[in-house]
Amino acid sequence: MQKRGYGMAREESLSDLLGGWRSAVETAVPVLGFAAGWLADGRSIPLAAGIAVLAGAAVAGWRIAAGRRPVGTVFSLLVVCVGALVALRTGRAADFFGVRVLTNAASALAWAASILVRWPLLGVVVGTVLGQKTRWRADPDLLRGYQHASWVWVAQYLVRLLVFVPLWWAGTVVWLAAAQAALTWPLVAACLAVSWWVLRRALPEGHPGIRYPRALQRT
């Protein structure tokens, strides 16, 4: 008998499709490099910034060599470079993490807005990965599922802000780096698992799954 929200064959999870664990681990590398450089030479911001940028460039090169999406790779490297420049400009090491505070705040707002206008970003991302473009929106069950599951991603960004903002305000570089590491892979893994569960629960019994919007089946 077919289970709720499943097709006949095993369907990839969001983690399978989006490769969340790899991106999360790679994102932490420049941050840890910054903290290591800052501690290694008497809290030197130039050294920390240089190591962070080199680590970010190495990660970007690895991603491109592995055939990863160039847009996400360039954006990740840009965040590292801007953070390094801001810290050098202000002379405050914690400001390296200020860009990440802003990107998480912007992400929370963007994901929430996308749900309210019925273009949930989780559906946009997964639909693009699966080559569906925006055809998933013609399936009301999938649209509703992506809306519900996208709230989990909003919560992920809010959790980061609740942790990052006080630490950034206090200027605690080591704790900021530790929080960044702790809130990358573990939090992303939890977000992927919970949003996948929410999405499947939103689909009615007998729905063929995210690869096969019902509207596609009728054409």
UniProtKB/TrEMBL annotation:
UniProt keyword list: Membrane, Transmembrane, Transmembrane helix
Name of the protein in its database record: DUF3159 domain-containing protein
Entry's transmembrane regions: 45-64, 71-88, 108-130, 151-169, 175-199
The UniProt record lists the keyword Ribonucleoprotein: no
